[in-house]
Amino acid sequence: MSSRPRIVIDREGNLLADEDARLRLGRRAGDFELAAVLPGLVFLLEKEGPKVAMAGEILTRMTIMEIGNMIASAAWRGELHVIGEHHRAMRFDQGALRGARSNSPDDRLGEVLFRAGVLSRAQVREIAEQVGPDSRFGELCVKGGYVDAGELYKYLQKQATDVFFNALIVDEGSYVFVMGDVETDDEGTTVHLPVQSLLMEGVQRIDEMALFRDKIPHADLCPQKRPDAPDPKKLDTTATRVLELCDGRRTIDDIARETGYGEFATTKAVYHLIQQKQVDLRTPSNVDPDATRALVVQFNDVLQDIFMAVATYGGLDQTRMTLDAWIQGSGYGPYFGEGVDEFGAIDPERVVTALQDVESDHPLEALHQALHELAAFALFSATTALPRDQELTLARDVNTRLKAIRMG
User: Fold this and answer.
1) CA distance 344 to 193
2) Closest CA to 173 of 307, 352, 3
3) Which residue spans of the chain are classified as CATH 1.10.10.10?
4) pLDDT below 50 — which residues of the chain?
5) What is the C-alpha to C-alpha distance for residues 167 and 178, in angstroms, rounded to an integer?
6) Which segments within 150-300 are labelled E, that is strand?
């Protein structure tokens, strides 16, 4: 958690505040009473301000769970603030969650719609740039035809639920519960979600995610179907759909977006698929498709020039056959295909696809070496078709160009 603003009280009772503390206190200027001075606690209450029912430190991951249960059981009306790395506030009334807001980027409506697969990352940015005093993000989504009003309300409920669940797992910081109606700059959308149901689901999520994390440390791993997988047993609809997308390239986050199931449900499905030996986990490929294409294109230019030189002297077919045989014999066939095309080039898209399955810390370096070998053998193959002077000229040109090819 980020460090808190600091205030020092000297022995004469003078307050010395750092810059952050002064800025935050300045936004709450008013007339306050000293309500309590206890070991480890100085408590100020604003005159004529809202009534504070509870305030304290978050001691464990269960602290907010227990506070939420107390609020729901007592059917209190007010707002619970959970302040950790981020500030989340939730409005309660008669045992229901009536609204929630947060300054965490992960809790924004755009992120909710992105994780649900409704918006792309580019669309989230584009809509966010249009947000202003008279145009909210959700309204712009409806106007843009991305969702209708009913769907928007469903995602606003999902946003409030996510804020609630994210607040439950905060294990360091502080909390404050303010009774009654609280004025804010942005009241947000009103929802009605039973708190006890949310708490029960929250307990389940906390317990199950702790179990899942033993086998699935994070959502950036890629589940891949096992070729020797036994027949699956009693897979529910969620697990069946997730299994269809376990191609070793999509991360758990990707699958969660594509299906709209969310991270928790997708992680749970992947966990059960691992238990049934249906999938294995692999780290995501660190191959940059654009850099791969650019590298292949540079080598293709060299290969095509070699083939043009050979074509002049009628040895094209023999050179191509020799080169294709070398590709298959060298073991590079899965990456370069059956061989080169009629102009001496290999397919960049095939290389990009094949390289995604290579488990290497430096796949682009390995490709660079393989392409060098391919170009060197293509030059060697051309020697039987070229006069000696043309062979030397081509060799000098090719070697100079190969040295100039760099990765990235």
Assistant:
1) 64
2) 3
3) 216-282
4) 1-2
5) 16
6) 173-179, 193-194, 222-225, 279-282
Q: What is the pLDDT of residue 358?
A: 66
User: Is 337:396 a contact under the CB 8 Å cutoff?
Assistant: no
Other C-beta atoms lying within 10 Å of the C-beta of residue 255: 25
- Radius of gyration for the chain, computed over Cα atoms and rounded to the nearest angstrom: 31
* pLDDT of res. 1: 43
Indicate the helix (H) or strand (E) that contains 249. Answer: none
Quick: pLDDT tens for 202-254.
998 888 988 998 899 999 899 999 999 998 888 999 999 999 999 988 899 99
Report H helices in 78-148.
109-115, 121-128, 137-143
Predicted pLDDT at 282:
87
Q: Compute the distance between CA of residue 147 and CA of residue 275 in angstroms, rounded to an integer.
A: 37
Six token digits for residue 80: 């619970």
- Domain 216-282, what architecture? Orthogonal Bundle (1.10)
- Record the tokens describing residue 299, joined without a space: 């080598």
**What secondary structure, in 3-state letters, does 226-287 show?**
CCCCCCCCCCCHHHHHHHHCCECCCCHHHHHHHHCCHHHHHHHHHHHHHHCCCEEEECCCCC
pTM over the 0.90 mark: no
| Tokens 């991951």 -> residue | 61
